[in-house]
Every structure is written in structure tokens, then in C-alpha cells.
Amino acid sequence: MQSRNKYIVQEGWISIIGNTVLFGLKYWAGIVTGSLALIADAWHTMSDTVSSVIVLVAGRVSRKPADEDHPFGHGRAEHIASIIIGVLLAIVAFDFVVGAIAKFGSKEKTVFGTVAWVVTIISILSKEAMAQYAFWAAKKTNSSILKADAWHHRSDALSSVVILIGLAVGKNFWWTDAVLSFIVALMIGYAGYEILSKEITSLLGESPDEGLLLSIRETAQKACDRPIHLHHIHIHNYGQHSEMSCHIKLPPKMPLEEAHDICTKIEGAIEGKFGYISTIHPEPITW
Q1: d(Cα 79, Cα 171) in Å, to the nearest integer?
Q2: Which of the residue ranges 36-40, 248-252, 265-269, 272-276 would you say has the lowest mean pLDDT?
Q3: Half-sphere exposure of 263 (CA within 13 A, CB side)
């Protein structure tokens, strides 16, 4: 757990410092060249800074222990924070779709220069480096919020790649900057959709896959010397903590103490292999 918190804090601060510097460079380049696409990319980077602040706050909240008001801990704070990041991306995307449409109407040509090239290349390299670190940290810690932040970095790097392509052809077409702004907005919006769809599904609850269910049944059965017919399995995820409830079938005249011992064995086997804290409801066999 301590190692996990360390990665979240490190990624958050690296992102905040790096994105703040990049925002300043991109915004300055956008003002100098008059490019809406560069300014859009700058604000996309600033939204990364905001999301990284959310990462740090959520990481701190999620590691608070369980209490009377939150008996399952605070792990879902990460899911909530990821949803906030997704909403921020959607807002940024919508704003720049509106800006791109307005620029189409003005038919204003943007003249890109060396400043735009240098800043865009720096942005691509920096943002992809941040994304790679966040993806690596997310894999090490199994953190959904780090993965969301990684995709935020990646979407920013990809939007800068689109702008770089536009710089190469922009001098030939007046509408290049408007088209680039629109494409960047779509990419930002898609990244937001990906994050939101996954995290909302996690919060609402999703069915375990059949492979996991089969493995749980096999593990439970190996812990007992009689058939238990384990069924009605539900898994509830709370960030890094998961609870499982299920039913088993036992002979109707079995002593309560023996039924309790069987449930305790199953609970221990499941926690040992899967890390789930389980609650088992015994039912009488009726066939």
C-alpha cells in the first residue's frame, strides 16, 4: 500500500509541474501565431494539471481506513476522481468544437512559424513520457485513476501530433487551424468518453466474467469434503478492497456448528486466493 501511494504522489507532482510548464509554452505559442488549435492544446494541457491535482487528492482520500460512515473504506474515491477527469475532458472538447466552428466562419488563415514547431515537438515528447510513466505506475499499482491520467496525457500527446501534421500543410490552406482544432476536440472528447464509460460501469457494478466465477467455485469446492453447490455470487469492488457474497447448499439437518465451519473454510480459501472478504449464506438442499 505504501508503494502504491508513493507512485500516485510521484505521478501527480510530475504531471502538475510538467503540464504547467507546457501550458505556458503552448499558450504563448498560440498567442504569438494566432492559432486556435495551439491555444486549445494549451488548455487541454491545463486540464491535465487539474486532473493531476485530483489524482493527488483522490489518492489521499482513497487510502483513508474504513470508519463508521464508510465501513468498506474510501477506495471508490479513485473512481469518482476518474469521472471528474472524464467530465473535464468532455467540457474542454465541447468548448473547442464551438471555437473551431467559429473559426470556420471567419475564414481566418493562421501563419505558423518556428515557435509553433519547436513547442509542439517538445509537447509531444514530454506528454508521451508522462503517459508512459503513468501507464507503468498504473500497471504496478492497479490504479484506475493513474490509468485515467495516463490516457489524459496520451490524448494530449496525440493532439499535438495532429497539430504537428497541420503545421506541415497549414501554409497551403486557410482552414487548417479550424480543422485541427476540431480534430483535437474530438480526440479529447473520445478520451473523456472512454474514461467515463469505464468508471461509471465500475461504480454501478458489473458482473464477474465466467472464468473468474468458475475459479471461485473450484477454489471453494476444494476447501470442502462435500458438494456445496456454490451459486448467487456477487462481487463488490471498493477500489483496492473487494467484498463477495454467495450462497451454498448444505443438508437441511446439518448441525449449525458444522455449517459454520464449512463457511469459514470457504471464506478463508477465497480470501487466500482472490483477496475477497466473503459473506456466505447457507441454504438447505431441497432435492
Answers
A1: 44
A2: 36-40
A3: 21
Which among 36-50, 92-106, 135-149 has the top mean pLDDT? 135-149
pLDDT value, residue 70: 63
Architecture of domain 2-204: Up-down Bundle (1.20)
Nearest 5°: the CA angle 241, 55, 4 is: 50
Q: What is the DSSP letter of 258?
A: H
The pLDDT of 44-59, averaged and rounded, is 73
Instruction: Report the pLDDT value the prediction gives residue 82, as an integer from 0 to 100.
Output: 76
Helix (H) / strand (E) containing 279: strand 277-284
User: What's the pLDDT at 257?
Assistant: 92
CATH (residue range 210-284) = 3.30.70.1350
What are the sequence ranges of the domains in the chain? 2-204, 210-284
Q: What are the CB-based long-range contacts (under 8 Å, 24+) for 230-237? A: 230/266, 232/281, 233/208, 235/208, 235/276, 236/72, 236/205, 237/75, 237/202
CB count within 10 Å of CB 82 equals 30
Residue 238 CB contacts under 8 Å (≥ 6 apart), including other chains: 72, 73, 75, 76
Q: Quickly list DSSP for 119-155.
A: HHHHHHHHHHHHHHHHHHHHHHHT-HHHHHHHHHHHH
Cell numbers for 147:
490509468
Question: For the whole model, what pTM was predicted?
Answer: 0.56
Better-scored residue on pLDDT, 214 or 203: 214
